[in-house]
């Protein structure tokens, strides 16, 4: 059973109805650890994710994945090779491999593409110390050794390269994203 959002939860200058009834949008379900691609009211493909190990929440520095309505602020890395390593939203010139994985251990790798999210709900996930964009919350690639389907990230939403590459082709800046438990 799919959890259906209210279509008029948030009204902003960017998007009048959340989501637009006929537009493409993404649903991130933290409870089930998956992302669903929607076209209006039609559910499409489902992809496994890994959200924040610390659970859900908006607070700066919490390591939690923020809830509520967002939109894709920027798509970073289009045209770069799968496995491209990013630091500070810029490619380092490296492609992730096993040798690179060994140094430094425990690093939260950001690979392949970055879909940078911006909150749409003032006081909840936008503004002050609860701002998803200022928290640098992304959908991003992760090494194959990292688990999917379980919460394990530092707050971002991790995905397998294949899924992220597919989504990045159509989840352009402005695409609505609803994150819920």
TrEMBL record:
Pfam families from the UniProt entry: YkuD (PF03734)
Pathway: Cell wall biogenesis; peptidoglycan biosynthesis
The L,D-TPase catalytic domain, residue ranges: 24-180
Active site positions: 140 (proton donor/acceptor), 156 (nucleophile)
Family: Belongs to the YkuD family.
Secretion signal span: none
Keywords: Cell shape, Cell wall biogenesis/degradation, Glycosyltransferase, Hydrolase, Peptidoglycan synthesis, Transferase
One GO term of the biological process aspect: cell wall organization
InterPro entries: LD-transpeptidase, LD_TPept_cat_dom, Transpep_catalytic_dom
Organism: Litchfieldella anticariensis (strain DSM 16096 / CECT 5854 / CIP 108499 / LMG 22089 / FP35)
A GO cellular component entry from the record: extracellular region
Record-level Gene Ontology MF annotations: glycosyltransferase activity; peptidoglycan L,D-transpeptidase activity
Protein name: L,D-TPase catalytic domain-containing protein
């Amino acid at each position: 059973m799919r959890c259906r959002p209210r279509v008029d939860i948030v009204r902003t200058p960017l998007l009048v109805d959340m989501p637009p009834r006929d537009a493409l949008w993404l649903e991130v379900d933290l409870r089930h650890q998956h992302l669903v691609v929607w076209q209006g009211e039609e559910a499409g493909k489902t992809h496994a994710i890994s959200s924040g190990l610390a659970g859900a929440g908006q607070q700066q520095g919490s390591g939690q994945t923020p809830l509520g309505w967002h939109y894709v602020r920027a798509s970073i890395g289009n045209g770069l090779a799968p496995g491209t390593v990013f630091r500070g939203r810029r490619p380092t010139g490296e492609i992730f491999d096993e040798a690179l994985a060994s140094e430094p251990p425990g690093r939260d790798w950001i690979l392949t593409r970055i879909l940078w999210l911006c909150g749409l709900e003032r006081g909840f996930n936008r503004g002050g110390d609860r701002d998803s964009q200022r928290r640098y919350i992304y959908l991003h690639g992760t090494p194959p050794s990292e688990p999917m389907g379980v919460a394990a990230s530092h707050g971002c939403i991790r995905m397998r390269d294949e899924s992220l590459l597919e989504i990045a082709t159509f989840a352009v800046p402005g695409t609505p994203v609803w994150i819920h438990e």
